[in-house]
Amino acid sequence: MGRVPCCDKANVKRGPWSPEEDAALRTYVEKHHGTVSNWIAMPQKAGLRRCGKSCRLRWLNYLRPDIKHGCFTEEEDNIICTLYNNIGSRWSVIASNLPGRTDNDVKNYWNTKLKKKLLGTSKNSFTSSAPAPAPAPVAAPRVKTEPAHAPADHLAAPPPLDSGFGFAEELYNYHSYRLLPELPPFAMPPSASTSAGDAFLSELGIGSFGELLGGFGEFAPIYSPSTSHGTSNAQATTTSLTHHELLGGLMNLEY
DNA sequence: AAGTGGCTCAACCGCATGTAG
DNA sequence: CCTACATGCGGTTGAGCCACT
């Protein structure tokens, strides 16, 4: 007994999508205000001879109106590398930090360009402001209670401290490599405040602390975004923690 | 101009997870 | 609680394109 197929493979079209199919899919989804309640039933309703999963993928990765196509910026490179160092190949999580990018896009970009860039022989092959490449962590299991940190072998080769690193990169490295003895203590700016936290997030290209902490599973329980989630003033309402306190906690926990 | 080897990226596959009944 | 089904996700494939010889 094999798996139950998600569709009748003999009667569905496969391969590249035609402009007519794209139009039919786009029309259907837009008619339903961008949400499809049942992708399996959707192709028949839209008059498409496609697998529902294929339709969903086509919409999410290509037809969605907010998709950003084209070259990745250096800032996006940095975010991808930083998050990959921390959480491994969890492309959907990484993509969620890059507005307009899909997990497939990020994955393809990593596999075809970034990985080579990082593994390149030139010591300057990576951008000067980016964290140095670390051994790729094994992808964390896709469970909600996953360990937040990369596995221990991740500690084998920490990135060198580079004076060119910004606050954000240093904090991430600090987190990623568990304060190896050779790393000097990370100094919190004396004037650290909500605005410092905002600047930190802005530097990472992350919209809210909730997004940041989403990558650090064990911090999630102490943080609950306020109703102003996504704004620069988001705070941890359940604990009344400020950005400053969260940053402090982020740096002190486990170290 | 033709051959070929590498690269890109859309699409597919199958497993994991979520959820409704 | 169990089962079946839908959805989400990461890994992989292969057609088409391009640069090089």
TrEMBL record:
<keyword id="KW-0677">Repeat</keyword>
<keyword id="KW-0539">Nucleus</keyword>
<dbReference type="GO" id="GO:0005634">
    <property type="term" value="C:nucleus"/>
</dbReference>
<keyword id="KW-0238">DNA-binding</keyword>
<feature type="domain" description="HTH myb-type">
    <location>
        <begin position="64"/>
        <end position="118"/>
    </location>
</feature>
<feature type="domain" description="HTH myb-type">
    <location>
        <begin position="9"/>
        <end position="63"/>
    </location>
</feature>
<protein>
    <submittedName>
        <fullName>Transcription factor RAX2-like</fullName>
    </submittedName>
</protein>
<feature type="region of interest" description="Disordered">
    <location>
        <begin position="125"/>
        <end position="157"/>
    </location>
</feature>
<dbReference type="Pfam" id="PF00249">
    <property type="entry name" value="Myb_DNA-binding"/>
</dbReference>
<dbReference type="InterPro" id="IPR009057">
    <property type="entry name" value="Homeodomain-like_sf"/>
</dbReference>
<dbReference type="InterPro" id="IPR001005">
    <property type="entry name" value="SANT/Myb"/>
</dbReference>
<feature type="domain" description="Myb-like">
    <location>
        <begin position="64"/>
        <end position="114"/>
    </location>
</feature>
<dbReference type="InterPro" id="IPR017930">
    <property type="entry name" value="Myb_dom"/>
</dbReference>
<keyword id="KW-0804">Transcription</keyword>
<feature type="domain" description="Myb-like">
    <location>
        <begin position="9"/>
        <end position="63"/>
    </location>
</feature>
<keyword id="KW-0805">Transcription regulation</keyword>
<dbReference type="GO" id="GO:0003677">
    <property type="term" value="F:DNA binding"/>
</dbReference>
